Amino acid sequence: MRDCALGWDVTDFGSKDFPRIGRTLFTLRNGHIRDPRYPKSYAEKLILDPEGQRAPAHFHRTKREDIINRGGGNICVQLTRTDAEDRPAKGTLDLVVDGCRRTIASGETVRLTPGESLCIPPRTIHQFWGEEGTGYRIDGVGYSVSSEVSSVCDDMKDNFFFADLVRYPVIVEDAPRIHYLCNEYPGVEAVAR
């Protein structure tokens, strides 16, 4: 669990606006790119997608990921291609949605209904969220649940954002810690940096 950053992952990416830019995830499986003790070549995460909350636009240079709508409402995924200098670029993207090839315009949003999935190739800028008015209602907020199945997830070195954000911001605790997040386990220098 410690070496592969498994477990709870709750972050606002340093936005200081968790309800709008944030994520609650649970990493179930993951290998480790630089440690041969963990040869697993894939990762799996469950993601809570409340309406109105987004992950920031970002991309990965090496990770390929499937986003799967596991239930609730619709998941919207905005996809933008990158150029050779890792900047947003115009043009088209070739994708696989539910096993079917599609070509979309760079910057277009794909809607996934419950059960549908989308494969995001490396170097594709993406941002996703629960579509307003479609999720399970809990205390007045709509929720959807998605999952990510991907190649090994190296959150420390393979997340590139377009704003002044970080994958694991420092948390100022206002209550005693009950559980560690996936990047906070004691004795794990590589993850806790």
Description:
- It is built from 1 helix and 15 strands, in the order E-E-E-E-E-E-E-E-E-E-E-E-E-E-E-H.
- With 193 residues, it is mainly β.
- Strands 1, 2, 3, 5, 8, 9, 11, 13 and 14 form a 9-stranded antiparallel sheet that branches.
- It has one helix at residues 189-192; strands at 7-11, 23-29, 42-50, 58-59, 65-71, 75-82, 88-89, 92-97, 100-105, 109-112, 117-120, 124-130, 136-138, 141-151, 160-161.
- Helices cover 2% and strands 43% of the residues.
- Strand 13 and strand 14 (141-151) form a beta hairpin.
- It has one domain (12-166): Jelly Rolls, CATH 2.60.120.10.
- It is globular, with a radius of gyration of 16 Å.
Defining traits:
193 residues, Jelly Rolls, four-stranded antiparallel beta sheet, globular, 15 strands
Radius of gyration: 16 Å
Mean pLDDT: 93
Number of domains: 1
Class by SSE composition: mainly beta
What CATH architecture would you give?
Sandwich
Provide the CATH top-level class: Mainly Beta
- Extract low-pLDDT stretches: none
Number of helices: 1
Summarize the main sheet: 9 strands, antiparallel
Order of H and E elements: EEEEEEEEEEEEEEEH
CATH domain fold name: Jelly Rolls
* CA-based shape: globular
Strand tally, please? 15
* Helical proportion, percent range: under 10%
